[in-house]
Amino acid sequence: MLVAIGDVHGQVWKLRDLLQQIHELPLAEDDRIVFVGDYVDRGPEVALTLDLLIQLRDQRPNTIFLRGNHDQSMMDVRDLLDPGRETELRFDDVSWWFQYGGRQTMASYGGENDWYRQVPPTHWQFLETTGMEHRESGYIFVHAGLLPKGMRWFDAADPRLWIREAFLESDDDFGGTVVFGHTPTRDGEPLVQPNKIGIDTGAAYGGPLTAALLEPDHIVRFLRAD
Description:
alpha/beta
């Protein structure tokens, strides 16, 4: 069985609740958990969230951790602010991060101007080793979605981190059912379509944190932590 978990966004208490439910299934040793990214920003407990994810990685080495656009932005801002690093980022990359959740991440690590120096090296290492895509058992796991066939992407950023409408409105056969986060559902329920399953149910906005239990040919059920 595959267990896909949506965007956490520093909601460590919801994550603890959801992981407890998953372990009580019970979870077999060869069952795999896949996170679709966005571990940081918006929520109040980013540092504790990464601590918990690193602990889970050590306990279950076959867990897959994908990268979200917020995770990428946190690393990009560090690269821009740290005088020891070279970057080609623009100032608006920093302002976007501050406006859309970065301030909560900064506060989680102390809120100082050099906040990035307060982030433990293990946290940076965790974020830097996240993947962009995972394919298994007829599913394609990715943060935001995939580029539809024939569509061009003009942004320098990877569409798998940022795409929305073009993917959401597509009925393409992507070669597997795409399991994704990034775009929160309005009703707090997962999005289920023939070619995609959306599991960002708005944990950062008061909604539940959702996990999809998946077998190769069907959804077993959803779990949620409110």
